[in-house]
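Need tokens for this chain, all 171 residues.
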Amino acid sequence: MAIGMDGMSKGKGSNPKNYWERFTSFKQRGEWVELQFMAQAAKRRFAVSKPWGDMQAYDVGIEHRSSFLRVQVKSTTARSGAGYRCMFLPNHLKKRDYSLDQIDLFAAYVIPEDLWYLIPAVLLLGRRRRTMAMLCPVVPPAKKASYRYESYREAWKLLTKTRADLAQCGR
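Here are the structure tokens for all 171 residues:
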């Protein structure tokens, strides 16, 4: 059985199109998505760190020059209407919501489309808390406002920003 670049088997009887269905839990899939994000960031020459354990609100730290960004990684396979619905809520076992004191950026992976959205946390946690976003329209949406984060698709350049720069987004 051969192993593909994504670490998933490509052997006889495997369905590489829906490989994400093989994960036995959302935690397992989440850990895999965090690794995918870290690999993508490292490929772009960012210094990547991972906090020990699950006590921090962020999943990955990104260093660029003297800046350190705290990134919360999310993923979706949930097709809804013209795109994919991604939830920006903490694990149901955590009692507290995310805050701007804990997270600078969300990285959302649309697994079936192999696309990343890097969205400043202030846009989701700011004045009006947003717990869900529609991402990656696969057909032209009926309401363009429902896909307000398209400018953050593959926005890896945001990892070069400072916390202060990201806090100014959307103002």
